[in-house]
Amino acid sequence: MQLSDPLFPAAPVQVLHPDTDTALALVCDSPHSGTDYPTDFGYAVATADLRRCEDTHVHWLWDAVPRVGGTLVHATFPRSYIDPNRDEQDIDPAMLADAWPGATTPTARTLELGMGLVPSHTPTHQPIYARRLSAQEVAHRIAHYWRPYRRAVAQALEAAAPRGPRWHLNLHSMPSNAYERLGRVAPGPLADVVLGDLHGRSCSGAFTQCVAQAFRQRGYSVAINDPYAGQDLLREFGAPSQGHESLQIEINRAIYLDEHTRELLPRASRVREDIADLLHDIAIYIRSACPTHPDSHTKDRPCPSP
Q1: Within 10 A of 155 (CB to CB), how many other CB atoms are there?
Q2: With left for phi above 0 and alpha for psi between -120 and 50, is residue 114 left, alpha or beta?
Q3: Are 16 and 72 in contact (CB under 8 A)?
Q4: What would the pLDDT profile of 94-137 be if each residue is shown by its tens digit?
Q5: Model confidence pLDDT, tens digit, residues 248-291
Q6: pLDDT band for position 167 (cuts 50, 70, 90)
Q7: How many Å is the Cα radius of gyration of the chain?
Q8: Would you say 7 and 42 are in contact if contact means Cβ atoms under 8 Å apart?
Q9: 3-state SS string over the chain?
Q10: Contact 284/300 with Cβ under 8 angstroms?
Q11: How far apart are CA 276 and CA 207, in angstroms?
């Protein structure tokens, strides 16, 4: 079954700009919550299984970002079509019917789980296609979906802070059986929230702890880099030594979503309200960290000092 959506959505990426008088050097992006399935997808798997790839409703959970002065970027196309959080060369040549014109550097995750730039398998290990894709198909997806998304995030970050420090939150949701999906033995219950900073390479410990504290103060359990440490968008945009903070946030789907139907649970509105509230804490932290901001000397920081 194919979902009936246009080959070219109105826009492969949506950018919601700050709607407050004082914009922050904050950009949040949701690369996997898109649900516009292009008509040229040509998948051969049950739609319900394919949708398990989605971070459904994540951009809705974080829709307060513009109200606190940040920019919210989100994909409209699905991750299963092409994944904007993977490197452009993370392609498994075995998926292709003809030769790829450039270099391919598939990761072990791509080869083992089929979760590369263009996923070949669903999270339940079902093959997405009953065919091989042409190189032209993949090139089309890169040109019209992957690159516009990456360009939108880069432009939003540049606009938010042409010089000086900036903060980037890479937004996701994770399945409640995340350890099982990764082929790992769970050390205990999956946290409500997992923060990933590439083990300190994409974000300072101070900002990671700021966000962790903001969630914990609202009753959420938080883990750091376990089981997810981050992916390509963090590698692209995180450079804490230059003041470029990039942090991945994974929300356990079981706390807001029916993982089978993709429908919101009654608690979802509370989760959304909590996120809107903690965004104010993050905004205070960012204003405190920016010496040119009028609020830079505030004493009432809810997060650790930068």
Answers
A1: 14
A2: left
A3: yes
A4: 999 999 999 999 999 899 989 999 999 999 999 999 999 999 99
A5: 999 999 999 999 999 999 999 999 999 999 999 999 999 998 75
A6: very high
A7: 19
A8: no
A9: CCCCCCCCCCCCEEEECCCCCCCCCEEEEECCCCCCCCCCCCCCCCHHHHHHHCCCCHHHHCCCHHHHCCEEEEECCCCCCCCCCCCCCCCCHHHECCCCCCCCCCCHHHHHHCCCCCCCECCCCCECCCCCECHHHHHHHHHHHHHHHHHHHHHHHHHHCCCCCEEEEEEEEECCCHHHHCCCCCCCCCCCEEEECCCCCCCCHHHHHHHHHHHHCCCCCEEECCCCCCCHHHHHHCEHHHCEEEEEEEEEHHHCECCCCCCECCCHHHHHHHHHHHHHHHHHHHHHHCCCCCCCCCCCCCCCCC
A10: yes
A11: 18
Question: The tokens of 277 are what?
Answer: 């509230």
305 and 298 in contact (C-beta within 8 Å)? Answer: no
- What does the alpha-carbon distance between residue 4 and residue 229 come to, in Å, rounded to a whole number? 35
In the block, tokens 């490197």 appear at 87
